[in-house]
Amino acid sequence: MSDHTELTEFHWMMDMLQTVDVGLVVLDKDYNIKLWNGFMESHSGMLPSEVRDKSLFELFPDIDCNWFTQKARQVFELKNRAFMIWEQRPYLFRFPNYRPITGSEDYMYQNITLSPLKSTTGTVDHICMMVYDMTDVAASKKLLEITQVTLGEINERESV
Amino acid sequence: MFSVLICDDSLVARKQVAKSLPDDWDVAVHFAKNGQEGINALIEGKGQLLLLDLNMPVMDGYQVLEQIKQQGLSTKTIVISGDIQPEAHQRVQKLGALEFIEKPVRAEVLEQVLTKHQIHTEIHHQQVKQLERLDPQVRDCYQEIANIAMGQAGDNLARLMNVFVKLPIPNVNLIEVSELVMMLQDIEDEESVSGICQGFVGPGVCGEALFILSDSSFGDVAKILNVKDEVDDQVQLELLMDAANILIGSFLNGFATQLDMHFSQGHPVVLGQHCNISELISTNKTRWRRTVAIEVSYGLEGYNVHCDLLMLVTEESMKIMNHKLSHWMED
């Protein structure tokens, strides 16, 4: 009975990972893709079977290999999480905007988190990459900055 | 340092009031030209004592007193005004002012009032109080786990960057908003800084990590991280993020291990590059009142690199933390 419940929960969990609105990718030490969830599949148009065991940098030549490996190194070596935010680079994967009609930006701004996956022996041979859509935040922040600059200019003109 | 805010629209009056403060009183004196400026300064923690004029443009003294009440700002107010009508006296005292002094203010009168309300003599008490607010045993315990976590973070930094990290003793305090502002001002030392802030949460324990790097450090950080490009704003942000990832991440790992819990980390937020440090937190400091602050200043031997890691944990988290750490505190 309890086995059955656990199995059901496992299925739910898998289903949720597949449908959650966050990109999930597992990479090994050579940056080969081991797991590719539904979010990644939908936005990239690449099936999990197409990307499995292929190198991240070969599939996405736009990704700066040195830059990325430097961030990933500390995750493998220090078992730390590493964060990359859209202010550093707008995106890692060039995905189109989630809202192709009403969205103001052409592509999806992304925050990336790299998290260590410990093996049963405690070593980190794989890392998990999470891709978050930050487009709305980025668009609002850009708009706010433009507004602040305009406001500053108006104030300056008036004080002259 | 105890801070005094003098709020008066007249320059002469501001100078006169400042001159009347007791000579032996080591205080930071701030000025405001009207009530609104005064309120802003109070929010920034620049006035443990407020010396307030009543008739001012923009916002007058009565409105200031009302605002202090409404916003629950902690300050002691003494009104110094030329308005000698008895009704004015009553009104301001009703609004929460401690005392009413007539203009022009005389040093002896001001000193009397300060002594009467134990403001002048209170400074020493306050320093003692600040140390006592955190149970010494709890404080020792936090200091010890901070020490271990800090050491791990330093070791990680040293290994990844191949440098020797100078480790200080972590500073543990229960602080209020105004004190955080002052603490950061101490760090600032008139140089410009950049910061990253990141929220973390575990079961029953939550807080924020604040990583602050002085701008003068960037050149050397770039050398250490082997960055050959010119260090522009974009490269600086990269360096800031890298250093913050390493230090915050490893500190939290160490911290979590000792508390036997797991922390989720939110997305880091850039706190504005090259801004004045008081501006860094001025936008969102009204929400909380007290926090446990663990302050660690890292330096790198042979390099001009100075960074500060501030771990701020909410007061409510202490209960769970103390419970988790009870085995440290026994015997």
UniProtKB/TrEMBL annotation, chain A:
SMART domains for the chain: PAS
Superkingdom assignment: Bacteria
CDD domains per record: PAS
Transmembrane segments: none
Database matches in SUPFAM superfamilies: PYP-like sensor domain (PAS domain) (SSF55785)
Domain PAS per the UniProt entry, residue ranges: 11-77
UniProt protein name: PAS domain-containing protein
From TrEMBL, chain B:
Name of the molecule in the record: Response regulator
SMART domains in UniProt: REC
InterPro entries, sorted: Bact_response_regulator, CheC-like_sf, CheY-like_superfamily, Sig_transdc_resp-reg_receiver
Modified residues (4-aspartylphosphate): 53
Keywords attached to this entry: Chemotaxis, Phosphoprotein
Pfam families: Response_reg (PF00072)
SUPFAM superfamilies linked to this entry: CheC-like (SSF103039), CheY-like (SSF52172)
Domain Response regulatory stretches: 3-118
PANTHER family: PROTEIN-GLUTAMATE METHYLESTERASE_PROTEIN-GLUTAMINE GLUTAMINASE 1, STRESS RESPONSE REGULATOR PROTEIN 1
Source organism of the structure: Neptunicella marina
Any one GO BP annotation for this protein: phosphorelay signal transduction system
